[in-house]
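Pipeline run #58 for the internal structure catalog. This entry was flagged by the ingest filter as a single-chain record with no existing model, so it goes straight to prediction. Upstream metadata was stripped on purpose; only the residue string is passed forward. Reviewer on rotation: M.T. Logging verbosity set to normal.
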Amino acid sequence: MTDDAVIWNQLAALLPEAGAQEVKDCWDIGEQEAGLGLLVSGVLGHKVLISETVRAQISVLAETWGEREALTPQILQCRVEATPAPMKLIEGDGSTVPEAIDMAEDLDGLVLVPWITCTRCGQVLMRAHARESWGDLSYLARYYVITTPNRATILGLFAADYASAAFAALQRACSDAP
């Protein structure tokens, strides 16, 4: 979680000093859920211009702390710079990949939901969810999956507690390329 603390402080620094300190204080006392709410409402309230990559990073932190579903509508409202960024949040486009039957044994019967894409190489970070008996997708992802741009081949598979690691791997994919 050390990396998350560094990222947390970098994101908090987007806000004016008083708001930034409140977000940092939330981390220090273990109130990450409240801190994420303060961060997102501060970015919106102060009309802070952020990159698509920062917006994706906020979504990853929200996922890590169980707040993604609650905060996504506000995260999607954040003002984004016109300059292209390497990562883009594609949450809420309504697309899914049907049950991932032949992709990997661990994904049998799960539905892949596109989440974040690399704008340079097109690889996609997806959340793998179970379909509940009432038809909706499970609240929590079972896995995080990085796929090729056409979403047909798995390049990386990460367990449920590794949203940040999956995002970091997606970021490294292009930066490590020759």
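catalog note: The chain has a mean pLDDT of 89.
catalog note: The helical segments are 2-12, 17-28, 32-45, 52-64, 68-77, 163-175.
status: ready for reviewer M.T.
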